[in-house]
Amino acid sequence: MNPSLHAALAAVIDTIKPVDRALAAPGQAHLDSLTKPQGSLGRLEELALQLYMVQGGAKPKADLCRVYTVAGDHGVVAEGVSLFPQEVTRQMVMNFVTGGAGINVLARTAGAELFVVDAGCLGGPFDEHPNLIQGKVAPGTANLALGPAMTIEQCTKAVLLGVDLADRALAAGVRVLGTGDMGIGNTTPSTALYCAYLGLDPDSMTGPGTGLDKAGVSHKVEVIKRGLAANAAAVSSATGPDGALKILAALGGYEIACLAGLILGGAKNRQLVCVDGFISTAACVAAWKLCPATADYTVLAHASAEPGHKLALEKMGKAPLLHLGLRLGEGTGAAIAMFLLRSAAAIYNEMASFASAGVSTVE
Question: What is the pTM (predicted TM-score) of this model?
């Protein structure tokens, strides 16, 4: 392991602090003073208060918003865990760049910036484009069913790439980040990570991904079990950042590690991070295990239709914002949730108080 990489990641983790809980009382008092019954705007009030605390007690701002859709390929695809051929990852990156994918449409609709990141796609560099970030750590992972998907050094580089993405966004004035993913086969490493980090069972966590039938899901379960066995030393690692990193390297993917780094970077920068679905939440779990304080800076955008997602959220103690049956990934749910964050900030900043509006309060 390159000592400078280890030191750089350790420095990021050391910088992240929990939000100041003392801010909850004044923030809630302001929300309660607005012209509405207390708590009547539900989760929007919770989001407004979270933004307020994340941003250190300033008037909450939800703009600018930026989604990073991060792509990578997976050696475990050789085990037959996906219906789609591996070249689709690269083809979809080009679709993102040319503006034709679901995330492009929803990011435009939400008024969010979108950048596409090659963290580990097969093949060489892509053609340059203003909205494409060339961050390839390696051309795809190794097969996790046979051993570690990445070396510790490769994994750390991918995590630090994500931190750099958050820093680039901060320099551009971005206050809210969104996580998105693209990688054929990536529900398999994500499921393996959930099992390793949260002590969940592959039989209950494994779902159809891109549309596997019952036999396909059963095969996928066996591949994940083989992967957990092949990487048993990493899975049983000591707790703490080093153990969490070993698990991420053994079972993850370049896009997943990069998204974990994006969440770490967002927490370091006091940016709120909208976490998308099944794959992005696996990255969120990795970031949480690397640094528990990241939980203060994340919002789970939606409940994925992938069946294991509910079990993982219960273990995390997090409630998703939306229940729309989404299972596309790409950052689509995160983009939709950004509208809710804008709404929450506007309520906090623009609603009249009972006193200013001359409205009587409850006797």
Answer: 0.96
Query: Phi/psi of residue 322, each to 5°?
Result: -120, 150
Pull the structure tokens for residue 211. Answer: 């549309």
DSSP state of 295: G
Chain segment 116-156, per-residue pLDDT in tens = 999 999 999 999 999 999 999 999 999 999 999 999 999 99
Is 330 noted as a catalytic residue in this protein? Answer: yes
pLDDT digits (tens, 9 = 90+) for 154-202: 999 999 999 999 999 999 999 999 999 999 999 999 999 999 999 999 9
Helix (H) or strand (E) holding 71: strand 65-72
Question: Catalytic one among 45, 330, 350, 363?
Answer: 330
CATH class for the domain made up of 62-346: alpha beta
How much of the chain is in helix, strand and coil states, percent to nearest 5? 55, 10, 35
Three-class SS of residue 64?
Answer: coil
Burial 263-292 (b: 16+ CB within 10 A, else e): bbbbbbbbbbbbbbbbbbbbbbbbbbbbbe
In the numeric block, the tokens 């969940």 are attached to 200
Backbone φ and ψ for 249, nearest 5 degrees, come out as -65, -40
